[in-house]
Automatic annotation (TrEMBL), chain A:
Name listed for the protein in its UniProt record: Peptide ABC transporter substrate-binding protein
An example Gene Ontology CC term for this record: outer membrane-bounded periplasmic space
Superkingdom as given in the UniProt entry: Bacteria
Gene Ontology MF terms: peptide transmembrane transporter activity
Keyword Transport carried by entry: yes
Localization terms from the record: Cell membrane
Xref: PANTHER family: PERIPLASMIC BINDING COMPONENT OF ABC TRANSPORTER, PERIPLASMIC OLIGOPEPTIDE-BINDING PROTEIN-RELATED
UniProt domain Solute-binding protein family: residue ranges: 88-474
PROSITE patterns: PROKAR_LIPOPROTEIN
Principal subcellular localization: membrane
Membrane topology: Lipid-anchor
Residue segments, region Disordered: 24-44
From TrEMBL, chain B:
Keyword list, A-Z: Cell membrane, Membrane, Transmembrane, Transmembrane helix, Transport
Name listed for the protein in its UniProt record: ABC transporter permease
Major subcellular location class: membrane
A Pfam family assignment: BPD_transp_1
Cell compartment(s), UniProt: Cell membrane
Entries under Gene3D superfamilies matching the protein: MetI-like (1.10.3720.10)
Domain of life: Bacteria
Membrane-spanning residues: 9-30, 100-122, 134-154, 160-182, 227-253, 273-295
GO cellular component entries: plasma membrane
Membrane topology of this protein: Multi-pass membrane protein
Species this protein is from: Lentibacillus salicampi
SUPFAM superfamilies, per the entry: MetI-like
GO terms, biological process: transmembrane transport
Protein family: Belongs to the binding-protein-dependent transport system permease family.
Length: 557, 309
């Protein structure tokens, strides 16, 4: 008797389960096509790559993008005056340009065969419109004023509503000539012009879409190597498809790149191992496990990590000797090898390695050498002298840092190194979310802070202007007149003289080291698993992280 | 009954109003600002951007603006997703979480009741001990451990189901199982305890004496009476399952609301945080009402009449 209803129950459960699967299967059978595509990627007929993305794309409006992914996908599907290829500036919508003798007027010649995905030609007016829009206060763009302010003539005045947008220093004498007037000579303007904020926009289309512009595939126009398909702003999967109407379509090898949002690093790796995706990011806790994997690669970025020392909050940090002691007291080699463990390299200066070359072709970092290195004895000695100067025998400092797992561990390490190597120093940690850290930074409400900076264009200026007396990012009370003058000169009287300009940069960096403005920590790298069959994907030091225009799928080996 | 429901709905609206108000002001206390490039902008440039989002208005004005929008069903525009209405985000992110939560709830409850029943019937036998052990493990081991194990064995090693991602029905299986463990264990525990109590009570003895069949005793008299406490705990659990779980959604890369909610908080997307909180509250309140009505269906003793409260 008992057995009978027991069986009946089991049957019921079985029925329920099969009913569930039956019902839902029919509804989503269309999705199976996507999975089959994965297996085809190796064949010759179609070149397909399957990637994961760490998050959704919050914006595809070139004038509004601020985040890594927005910049990445506007970069893949749209194009500005120039494009970056392996650190070099190459043709985009512009074929060439001329710079006036005073360096203030740039005249770009545009190609006549570039079109938008609705068939309209890409003209100089599209640039004028887009740039004016990025600065129009009504647009509310963050990067517009940031990337163009102080560069394009009247950019800041336009953004603050002091003059109408028409006063912006950009005009179109004819459809294929773009004339740009700058506020100061800006030698790195070419690389700025490769950044999404400087991309053109089709006025008629943008106005027609209104607020809906760039919120989905249907409300976007493309003029780049790929088109973005099946996307809307909250989408968790989308594709890049070869843009057949792109002016250089014959260079583009890939037919399609698919993307799925996967935030968890372990899941990315699992998907990679099961062959569903062709690239996975590795967080530092996974590196140990996959370091010996044959597809393991590390790619250094041009992003620097450093310790900010707020001189307004502590008399110890206002003392140059003590700041210097701090900058020498952290074993950075051990930090990158043991703690970060992802290919990051110890940083010994204020401009990253492999980022820019001096006029005589030497890497900037090599030209100036290792300026700040680990030296515990020297540090201890300087620290003691400093303590005497401020008349104390012990100092307590608070270290402000991010709240991610990696940030906490590395901050813990830094605090430990400082407390161990500098007698009488006690460092406590304060871990807060990113947005809050920005707030505390803006209000100068911290003592020590670990911070990162990535470049906005290819020029030492993007790193070396950070510590100017009134610099937006200074926020720590650092001020050195000699350094200010040297850096200021690179944007006015020396702007046209490459040799002297770089000489100034080299000297300015030396001053930062001598006065211990910040303590360099490391140059960040990222560890990934990447299918060896993927070829010619370039990594940019600024703007879109990956450049897929020249990418292709080779043989499996 | 109808009057009772109407009165409950009126209270629900008041509760929602209070929740919206409290959330709004709590949000204003959060440190940081939604600008992503804040430290790169000058003071006046920051003003320009804040103006666009209406964050320059005094807080009472912002509050009134928000509440009037709410009455019209407008949850505002996301700060993070450009020009995307919060309602769009909710509509996009709710379904996967609801599907997973719903499946886990149904599967977990049914399996749990079964385990509980078996344990109660074979009281102190090996089936009882086995199901108790399962229940204890299910409540004490965090779901992400199960998720990891399922992913490793069922997906990576044996290739039965996809590792992660969202799309086909097969994609829902592993996250559903991982999510179902907890409700299953809870249901099993409650059912077992209640069943034992009910089966030991006088009216069951009476029923037995009258010659009611064993299955009649267990299902008609026993189970029905043991479900009441279960319904009480399963209600809130249903809400927490339907509103998604950060961990499960992250591990299985499911585009659900639970994960979205946490990332909205990380980027200080106020309108989305508000909208999600309100949606969760509505769900919760509605489910509580449903439970109260369910009580009456299960147990005639607490059936509600007009002035019966």
């Amino acid at each position: 008797m008992k057995k009978v209803w027991f069986l009946a129950l089991a049957l019921l459960l079985g029925l329920f389960l099969s009913a569930c699967s039956g019902g839902d299967n029919s509804g989503s059978s269309g999705d199976n096509g996507g999975e089959e595509g994965t297996e085809e990627s190796g064949s010759n007929t179609e070149q397909v790559l399957n990637f994961v993305n760490g998050d959704t794309i919050p914006s595809m409006d070139p004038g509004m993008v601020t985040d890594e992914y927005g910049i990445q996908f506007t970069g893949a599907s749209m194009e500005g005056l120039y494009r970056m290829k392996d650190g070099e500036i190459v043709e985009g919508i512009a074929t060439d340009h001329e710079v006036s003798e005073d360096g203030l007027t740039w005249t770009f010649t545009l190609r006549e065969d570039a079109t938008w995905s609705n068939g309209d030609p890409v003209t100089a007016n599209d640039f004028v419109y887009a740039w004016q829009r990025a600065l129009d206060p009504d647009t509310g763009s963050e990067y517009g004023p940031y990337m163009m302010g102080g560069v394009v003539k009247n950019a800041t005045a336009v953004n603050e509503g002091e003059v109408p947008v028409e006063e912006l220093g950009v005009s179109a004498p004819d459809d294929y000539t773009l004339e740009v007037n700058l506020e100061n000579p800006v030698p790195y303007f070419e690389s700025l012009a490769a950044f999404p904020t400087y991309y053109p926009l089709n006025e008629e289309f943008v106005e027609e879409q209104g607020d809906a512009f760039a919120t989905s595939t249907d409300t976007l126009l493309f003029n780049g190597p790929y088109t973005l398909e099946n996307w809307e702003s909250t989408a968790s999967s989308w594709e890049l498809q070869k843009n057949e109407d792109y002016w250089d379509a014959e260079t583009v090898q890939l037919d399609k790149i698919t993307f799925e949002v996967v935030k968890d690093a372990q899941t990315q790796v699992d998907l990679y191992e099961s062959g569903e995706i062709d690239r996975a990011g590795l967080s530092s806790d996974l590196v140990d496990q996959y370091q010996s994997h044959e597809d393991y690669v590390t790619v250094p970025e041009a992003t620097l990590a450093y310790l900010k020392m707020n001189q307004t909050q502590s008399d110890a940090l206002a003392n140059t000797k003590m700041r210097k002691a701090i900058s020498m007291a952290v074993d950075k080699e051990a930090m990158v090898n043991e703690i970060l463990n992802n290919g990051s390299i110890a940083s010994t200066g204020f401009v990253p390695k492999d980022f820019v070359k001096t006029p005589d072709g030497q890497d900037f970092r090599e030209a100036n050498g290792d300026l700040v290195t680990y030296d515990p004895e020297k540090a201890a000695q300087l620290w003691e002298e400093g303590l005497e100067e401020i008349g104390k025998d012990s100092v307590e400092l608070e270290l402000l840092g991010g709240d991610s797992e990696v940030a906490k561990i590395s901050d813990e390490y830094i605090a430990n190194q400082l407390s161990t190597n500098l007698k009488g120093l006690d460092v406590t940690l304060k871990s807060v979310p990113f947005e809050q850290r920005l707030d505390l930074d803006t209000n100068m409400d911290y003592q020590l802070q670990t911070s990162l900076w990535g470049p906005d264009y290819v020029d030492p200026y993007t790193f070396l202007n950070l510590w100017l007396t009134d610099g937006q990012n200074n926020q720590m009370g650092y001020s050195n007149e000699e350094y200010d003058t040297l850096i200021q000169e690179t944007t006015d009287e020396l702007a046209q003289d490459k040799e002297a300009r770089y000489q100034n940069f080299l000297e300015a960096e030396q001053i930062l080291a001598d006065t211990a403005a910040v303590a360099p920590l490391y140059q960040r790298a990222r560890a990934r698993l990447v299918q060896p069959k993927i070829q010619d994907v370039y990594i940019n030091s600024f703007g879109p992280t990956f450049e897929w225009k020249w990418a292709s799928v080779g043989s499996e080996e | 009954m109808l009057r009772y429901i109407l009165r409950r709905i009126f209270y629900m609206i008041i509760t929602l109003f209070i929740i919206a108000t409290v959330t709004f002001f709590l949000m204003k206390l959060l440190p940081g600002s939604p600008l992503s490039a804040e430290n790169k902008l000058s003071e006046s440039q920051r003003e320009v951007v804040l103006e666009k989002y209406g964050l320059n208005d005094p807080i009472p004005v912002q509050y009134v603006n928000y509440m009037t929008g709410l009455v019209r069903g407008d949850l505002g525009i996301s700060f993070h997703f450009d020009n995307t209405p919060v309602t769009d985000i909710l509509i996009n992110r709710m379904p996967p979480s609801m599907v997973l939560g719903g499946q886990a709830l149904i599967f977990g409850t049914i399996a749990g009741i079964l385990f509980g029943l078996i344990a109660a019937i074979y009281h102190n036998g090996w089936l009882d001990y086995t199901s108790t052990v399962i229940a204890v493990l299910g409540t004490s081991i965090p779901s992400f451990v199960f998720a990891g194990l399922l992913q490793w064995y069922l997906a990576n090693e044996w290739g039965l189901f996809p590792v992660a991602l969202w799309g086909t029905y097969a994609h829902t299986v592993l996250p559903t199982i991982a999510l179902a463990i907890f409700p299953m264990a809870t249901a099993a525990r409650f059912t077992r305890t209640e069943m034992l109590e009910v089966l030991g009570s006088d009216y069951i003895t009476t029923a037995r004496a009258k010659g009611v069949t064993e299955s009649g005793i267990i299902f008609k008299h026993g189970l029905r009476n043991s479900l009441i406490p279960l319904v009480t705990v399963m209600g809130p659990m249903a809400v927490s399952l339907m509103t998604g779980t950060l961990v499960i959604e992250k591990i299985f890369a499911v585009p659900g609301i639970g994960e979205q909610f946490v990332s909205s908080i990380e980027v200080l997307d106020y309108p989305t945080i508000m909208g999600t909180t309100l949606l969760f509250s509505v769900l919760f309140i509605v489910i509580l009402l449903v439970i109260d009505i369910l009580y009456g269906l299960i147990d005639p003793r607490i059936r509600l009449t007009g002035g019966g409260r």
